[in-house]
């Protein structure tokens, strides 16, 4: 799978792959996708930073828009818009005890559900899901609701995240720190 | 209801019974009276004792009565930043903003004039603008249908026969701020008449605002890239110009920069080397009126080459550099390039220009503050250069950024610690032994000195104890 073949160079990564078809439950592929996203959710909740990063394709793009679900990231500010190198920096800092906004760490539990997927073959997949994320830190609890879009591609090491877009439905309102993994 | 009677959200005014011609002048509606402070237990003399030079009493951060008085005497009385003209570049565009507890609309009327109007129907008081932003020809109160033009005129009332001959629509427009003025597109308003004009209020801080404006080719800023909005449980005065904290609060970020010093994605590219060290040449400045600056000019001029090469590696960057040198003399262009449009200035009480952003501080309560950050783009620069500005902003600021979130965490710890009211004095004396005053009255200290904290507190004290504002006290 080449870089250009899966459009890794731009935000078009969150569009449906060409000549794709719906993947339905029950199927091996659907089960694999579901297990992958549940694993990712667990790793984020457990602050298993390196394991989470290992799910990523080295050209991956992580996008958490601000103000709306779908603005032009080249012209509008995001909450997070990072390539893989930015994610490495993020993980480096999350592991640093002097990252005060995560010291102590947030306690996290998230439910991911409502999966729907389309794919071109078994190697190029676009998955949509919803999530509810409960966070407790410093005696305060917040609940975040959102939708995620994952672009997954298969490499020798299995499925990898080539793109992940997280839309928090409260992203146009004042929010507390969301420095844990979303 | 017939089709003709149905109200639409569209821009036309349906069924306007009392209509004022579009050219009718907006009357100066009544200016808000000063709020009655007589219920408060602090008098001027006791307030004066709370902030002697170099010290602050923790009640300033924890007492709800003092917070109420701050809203009245600072936010509801003096100059407050509202927004940038480019946010409402087209006629009819509007943004909802806040002056302390007062909801206002920042709007460009059909006559192209920028106004600040109280967001409150003159009939029964509901907000008339319920969207955060948008563009329309009218604001309508959906309680009883009173409709206002974007210039604030009362355009129509429903059932006008119920108001009689003496009803004067011109006296029932949306209440405007008493004063609105701007400096290079930055619009300020005041809810009461100001003894001091905006230019005089900004004073020496105006020339450092130019560092941001002139960094845009043609001086043309666009503030239309959305915003990040965060909230923390701490007092609004914690958001200040502090060059003493980065080594500690941002230790993990500095470690990241050291690891990825050459990364264009990291702010390390603009913060070359360490401008905050105890041996750094950076300075702090207090311009008066509470306006303060972390002055990186000397430091950044030493490291301009690195930012220049980052720009040159960005599409459109070379053209950008050429534009700066074509528009300005070489010395000023050198500085603009080195500073990357970042004056790092705080305009008392609610505006900060930091890095690539305009920041508005909204006090919500004595221990809760909202911070809204608007990245500034350059109208006449490449998409790639502007995208670089956005990515730099996101890496440090915003609710998932690496910097502001650690700041907010510390502010919350301060708010917790200040609950200890035993021996309640906070020390802000650093650098009093070595600050100096320039000919124009600007106080200057080392980057790690608390010159800005003292400057902000001096303005706080002046406004809180201004005898002309004491009213019922």
Explain what the structure shows.
The complex is a heterodimer of chains A (182) and B (473). Chain A has 182 residues and is an alpha+beta fold. Chain A has 3 helices and 7 strands. In chain A, strands 1-4-5-6-7-2-3 form a 7-stranded mixed sheet. The longest helix of chain A has 18 residues, at 28-45. In chain B, helix 9 (304-312) packs across helix 10 (317-327) and helix 10 (317-327) runs antiparallel to helix 11. The relative contact order of chain B is 0.16. Chain B has helices spanning 44-48, 59-62, 64-75, 198-202, 206-213, 246-249, 251-259, 297-302, 304-312, 317-327, 330-339, 383-396, 404-417, 451-464; strands at residues 55-57, 80-84, 93-99, 102-108, 114-118, 133-135, 138-140, 147-149, 154-156, 179-183, 186-190, 221-222, 228-232, 283-288, 291-295, 345-347, 351-354, 357-365, 368-375, 377-378, 425-427, 436-437, 443-446. Chain B is α+β, with helices and mostly antiparallel strands and 473 residues long.
Name the beta content range of chain B.
15-25%
**Spatial ordering of strands, largest sheet of chain B:** 13-19-18-17-16-15-14-23-22
Q: List the quaternary state of the chains.
A: heterodimer
Neighbour order of strands in the largest sheet of chain A: 1-4-5-6-7-2-3
Order of helices and strands of chain A: EHHEEHEEEE
Note the overall shape of chain B: globular
What does the average pLDDT of chain A come to?
93
Number of strands of chain A: 7
Distance between the termini of chain A: 27 Å
- Rg from Cα of chain A: 16 Å
State the share of residues found in helices of chain B, binned by percent.
25-40%
Largest interface: A-B, 38 and 44 residues
Biggest sheet of chain A, in brief?
7 strands, mixed
